[in-house]
Amino acid sequence: MDLRQLEYFVAVATDANFTSAATRVHTTQPNISAQIRGLERELGAPLFDRAGRRVALTDAGRAALPAARDALAAADSVRQAVADVNQLLRGNLAVGMVDGCTVRPLFAALGEFRTTHPGVGLSLTEAASDLLVERVMRGELDVALAGYAGDLPDGIEEFAVVRERVVAVVPHGHPLATRTAVSLRDLRDATVVGLPRGAGIRAAFDRDSGDVRITLEASSPDAVVELVACGLGVGILSESIAADRADVVVGKPIRGVDDRASLGFVWRATAGPAVRAFMDLARAAFGPGGSQAAAAG
Fold first, then answer.
1. Which residues lie across from 194 on neighbouring strands?
2. Calpha distance 76→240 (Å, rounded)
């Protein structure tokens, strides 16, 4: 057997369809079918049940799949080890960033990476934070700047740019504006304005908010501030964002909401030299303690 056969086997197992798997690995459906049949002959057992339009793994296929993935990962490790020794960066770097990102140090790091490593292809994708983390886990993105709350999944490393509590945001002159802190009871009868599900700030609030729910969603922190300033409700944002807009709103700690919202870079622990090179530049751009000016969800 060869690595190409194992790659085709894993692709079909992932997609449960020969045609879409062929598209994924940039070959034809007849070729991928022939390669899988050759692998099955060599192993002496069928790997897929081909009844119907979708294919399913047989018992032998399920037993072989983890070892096939390990073999492909080991081959990637060999390539990365050689690249490390030669200090050679090549290939592609897929970077994700949270929707509406305006974090200048990120763009500075991307520009420096392009200048320093012109041989590496660079792509940039915007999405909601929870989707970015999922895509990093699946290997569809190499690294992403995303918002999150709580612990990250096993095998994911992070560089937190901002980690801070969420606050209730009200206009100057609002009855809650003179409080040292507000309670969840204070918010229970209010219209609560916040970011959509999937944002790190929203996740941190939802984890501790009990029966208090965000009922009016806005697509960006600036939109939350504007809605609050117009008297449409009490906003949920991070401390730094509230402080940046202190000209129109005031942020108050929420008793009982203790989880921290984080904005940071996430990548797989097994990432290659291109990710490590990019993260060196990102750390330099943000500084050792991150940047409190990084206002994103």
1. 217
2. 41
